UniProtKB/TrEMBL annotation:
Belongs to the UreF family. Keywords: Chaperone, Nickel insertion. The keyword Chaperone applies. Pfam families: UreF (PF01730). One of its GO terms (molecular function) is nickel cation binding. This is Urease accessory protein UreF. Gene3D superfamilies: Urease accessory protein UreF. It comes from Dacryopinax primogenitus (strain DJM 731). The keyword Chaperone applies. It comes from the Eukaryota.
């Protein structure tokens, strides 16, 4: 195993840590509303949870994968210094992707959860993944400092309302900055989405922790692999290099589960709830 593969594997392990403060713990992505509206019962917790995970994962993969891929490419170009890419140009392109995702997110509850988790990822980078003060930098210290400044500037623009800071965009920024390849970034992003749903199901008392691990090992992996394969061609259609896909509906993001959108939008109407989304 060469050094690059080891580094990628190590980053995957770090980002898969369930203790990372990413904001996903307070989000159920509509699962709580799904159960409250009568879809599933205590006796069918595993089946109902798995059905929700499958539908939610398929819809999220189709809607978010293209944004992660394109935003990741934008950040990588800045990191590599291709064609003298400037900070302002990079943030402007990310802003276009961010605005498009805002427009394509169909309900206010999903928007709220997405932006909360997005800013949490940038905060995670600035507080958890930057070089500790006083520790010697490596040979790429100038690049590291540039990316630290880049993420700080992006956070400031989100705080000032110039960017929304949606989850797929900020996830791409985080993983591209850490050096994770785009396809591995998308795979991990979808895996974490599915794992968060199972975690929410446990806290809703629909399934137990052991059942959650069983589903994660035996059911979720093929679902994630399938969606990564199905969405490997997706782009947002923004940018000169993507103009060939702009008229190809099959290559563009879309929401594929209207029921999930409706139930997620009704989350705040519940009399009592334990999640923010």
């Amino acid at each position: 195993m060469d050094r690059e593969v080891r580094i990628v594997s190590y980053i995957l392990i770090l980002l898969a840590d369930s203790n990372l403060p990413t904001g996903s713990f307070v989000a159920s992505s509509g699962l709580e509303s799904y159960f409250k509206h009568g879809f599933g019962s205590p006796s069918s917790g595993i089946e109902a949870t798995l059905e929700f995970v499958q539908n939610s994962l398929e819809s999220y993969a189709r809607s978010a994968s293209g944004f992660v891929r394109d935003a990741h490419e934008v950040v990588v170009r800045f990191v590599d210094g291709e064609r003298a890419v400037r900070l302002e140009d990079t943030l402007a392109k990310l802003g276009e992707l961010d605005s498009l995702y805002e427009a394509m997110t169909l309900n206010h509850v999903a928007r709220r959860a997405s932006t909360a988790q997005g800013i949490a990822l940038l905060t995670l980078y600035t507080k958890g993944f930057t070089n500790p003060y006083g520790l010697a930098n490596d040979a790429n210290s100038n690049s590291v400092v540039n990316m630290d400044n880049f993420v700080v500037e992006m956070k400031l623009r989100i705080r000032h309302g110039k960017l929304n800071g949606h989850l797929p965009i900020c996830w791409a920024v985080l993983t591209a900055t850490l050096g994770l390849p785009a396809e591995r970034s998308i795979w991990l992003h979808l895996f974490l989405h599915a794992r968060a749903l199972l975690s929410a199901s446990v806290r809703l008392n629909a399934i137990g922790p052991y059942a959650s691990q069983q589903l994660l090992l035996h059911s979720v992996r093929p679902l994630v692999d399938e969606q990564v394969k199905r969405c490997a061609h997706l782009h947002t259609g923004l940018g000169e290099e993507m103009k060939d896909t702009a008229d190809d509906g099959d290559a563009l993001p879309a929401s594929t589960w209207p029921l999930g959108e409706i139930l997620a939008a009704r989350h705040d109407l519940q009399h009592s709830r334990i999640f923010n989304s």
